[in-house]
Amino acid sequence: MNKEILISAIQNHIKDFNGQQVKAFYESKLGFTDVFTEEDNYMDYFKSGMYLEGHIQGNEEIIQKKLVDSNIEVLDNQEDEEIKMIVSKLKTISIDSLPIKTEFVERVKIMLEEAINMAEHKSNLGVIIFIGSILEGVILGMLKNGTETNQLQRDFKDSANNPPKKNGTIKEFEDWEFINYLQMAKKVGMYMDKEDHKANLIREARNFVHPNEQIKRQSFSINDALQSVLMLCEIIESFKHYGKYKR
Questions:
Q1: Per-residue pLDDT for the chain (247 aa), expressed as one digit of tens each?
Q2: Separation CA 198–CA 228 (nearest Å)
Q3: Fewer CB within 10 Å, N side or C side of the chain?
Q4: What residues contact residue 205 under an 8 Å CB cut-off, 6+ apart?
């Protein structure tokens, strides 16, 4: 809940109150007890955004519940605007200019549609998970494309200067972990450090596909989903400009 929306709801509710009613509203309904005693100051000060902003700091959900319990309507259109932004950003993502293997192009476009569907149905977690899958699909599709790919796979070492292994055995390329694909993408010049940080944030967020990780986090906001989308847009844009994969 955006605190500006709560402030607006309170200000609209008390606009026709007199000073004593405003004081009673803050004390009994919202629990704000540090109110002025000078009646002349009730209206101007209590209605000001400055006063309210000082009280609504990290307690948005508590204040919202108190307002709802008092039958005060809180109109939150902020979420709808953020959903529209997520959908708009996802629809602007274009991978056609990237050197991605054909079957991966088709799969990534399907996942983009699924991410849009998740956003429209207000599934923040669904958006976050699909963003991670889309990024992995783009990177994997680029790494598997071109004449240098096999050599790159044979020569690649992870951040510890070892080939990706499991139980002491070198993994086949298709069995690598997402982090290995990211490390290889950075090594061959797909993106620079600032995008590498964002890519790893997306990779970590995709781990919320696991129930245990979801339980630890508990909730996923529309802003979490939006930030994942914005980072994905920046990373994909970087693919069009950097390193060996530039067209």
A1: 567 778 888 888 887 787 778 778 888 888 887 655 555 555 666 666 667 777 777 778 888 888 888 888 887 666 677 888 899 999 999 998 888 889 999 999 999 999 999 998 888 889 999 999 999 999 988 888 865 666 666 677 766 777 777 777 777 777 788 888 888 888 878 877 777 888 888 888 887 776 666 676 667 788 889 999 999 999 998 888 764 544 3
A2: 9
A3: C
A4: 128, 129, 131, 132, 224, 228
**Which residue matches tokens 């009646």?**
39
Is residue 120 within 8 A of residue 87, CB to CB? The reply is yes
Q: How many other C-beta atoms are found inside a 10 Å radius of the C-beta of residue 209?
A: 15
- Cβ atoms within 10 Å, residue 153: 17
pTM score, two decimals? 0.63
**Neighbouring residues of 42: CB distance < 8 A, sequence distance ≥ 6:** 19, 20, 22, 23, 35, 36
Distance of CA 146 to CAs 102, 122, 154, 192, 198, Å?
Answer: 12, 38, 14, 21, 26
